[in-house]
Amino acid sequence: MTARQALFVGGSWVEPDGGHYEVIDPATEQTVGWAPEASRDQVHAACAAAREAFGPWSATPPQERAAVLARAADIVRDRLVPYAELARAETGATTATARGMQVGVAAARFRRYARVEPAEWAIPPQINEAGPMGRAGVVGALAVRQPVGVVTCVTSYNNPWANPAGKIAPALAMGNTVVVKPAPQDPLSVYRMAQALEAAGVPPGVVNVVSGARTEVGEAAVASPDVDMVSFTGSTAVGQRIAEVCGRGMKRQLMELGGKGAAVVLDDADIGSAVAGIGTTFSFYSGQICTAPTRVLAQRGIYDRLVGQLAAYARRLKVGDPREPDTVVGPVISAAHRDRVESYVELGRKEGAVVVTGGDRPGLPTGFYVTPTLLADCTNDMRVAREEIFGPVVVVIPFEDEEEGVALANDTDYGLIDYVWSADVARAFRLARRLRAGGVGVNTVGRNMEAPFGGFKKSGVGRDVGSYALHSYSEVQSIVWPG
């Protein structure tokens, strides 16, 4: 009998009022486990537990909070293999991705925020003339980061380790307490993270995890009067609904939402480098990642070569069982999501795009697979070029000169991560500064994990990662005094 998971509320493992629902392996379509369905009352109990724990935890010296995070990092690292096996089964990620980019990154994030950073900084003194506010004098000032309070963390299904860790670790480091609502598709990994934090000595109520397939679980975790802030990663549509609730309650928010990353490939670019970077859309989480360069803008001089090499690259990728060491492309998260991705490919055909490769299902007996797909001869007004598909599908749009390339790149509702490929680095940097996106990769799809991360426009609100996360999970207080 596959184990039935309990909720984690107030430091106790609690049986769910709503029973359990099945978690499915997207590669085998077999049962991975049974996730708990919290009731609205249990979610409110988790929020109340976090509120009660906030006072003592926020008063705990930062060094002691950091020590808990460091121990959690060690525990996650020590259990990397079994944790990664569960993550692979829940998400369909390849073994290498589950170990390196999911569990491995989570351990690194706990380790990163186990580093104590100054919570205050001096502001230059101000000389005040005599007036209605008093005599002439010098006024000193100090800015202090204070915790926000109780933070609800609503996490995404594409990475049930790195994404929650990127919220929980900086929130706890700053003295906040958290209520985590994991994605319904793969919540079991987040409960393993809670077990690791419990073993690391996190006090009762500081971390709570409540899951559910019903929308009322997330709604209760966001709307609870005990919650001061919501940190959400997911679709723009859901983010907009959460923002409305936050607005009514004046709750702080951090939103990392959708993307339709433009990869601007100039005519002097290294085509091989561009193909390898863009090709990660096919392989990395099977395209289920908001930062993917899914919208390729190719200058006319290299358009045909780029399309040809991208198609050849996609055809070489092995699609199959993520447990096999040579598999590059695993399944998407569910049958429903596979249908959604396939419907976009069919829509692209109807809109006039050319399916250069892919557009079908691989001949595998089980699993929710989509063959890496390349749509060429697209225009920027097509829905496949404007809407987030969240699968292994890349669209290619030609452009004539830099001005048109920049205009096309910016003609989108999104603005998370864009990319520029050019042999002339100065040219690439000039163009990057004109792109309306929270981040721009120049000749790379790599990330610097201390650089601020977040989006312009409908790709989100706020910035996190590195020290920027400490700002996001804190309020800034000013203290002034006469010099």
Automatic annotation (TrEMBL):
Coiled coil: none
EC number annotated for this UniProt entry: 1.2.1.8
Gene3D superfamilies: Aldehyde Dehydrogenase, Chain A, domain 1 (3.40.605.10), Aldehyde Dehydrogenase, Chain A, domain 2 (3.40.309.10)
Entry keyword Oxidoreductase: yes
One Gene Ontology term of the molecular function aspect: betaine-aldehyde dehydrogenase (NAD+) activity
InterPro entries referenced in this protein's UniProt entry, alphabetically: Ald_DH/histidinol_DH, Ald_DH_C, Ald_DH_N, Aldehyde_DH_dom
Stated name of the protein: Betaine aldehyde dehydrogenase
Family listed: Belongs to the aldehyde dehydrogenase family.
Keyword hit for Nucleus: no
Residue ranges of domain Aldehyde dehydrogenase in the record: 13-479
Keywords: Oxidoreductase
Enzyme class (EC, first level): oxidoreductase
Gene source species: Streptomyces chartreusis NRRL 3882
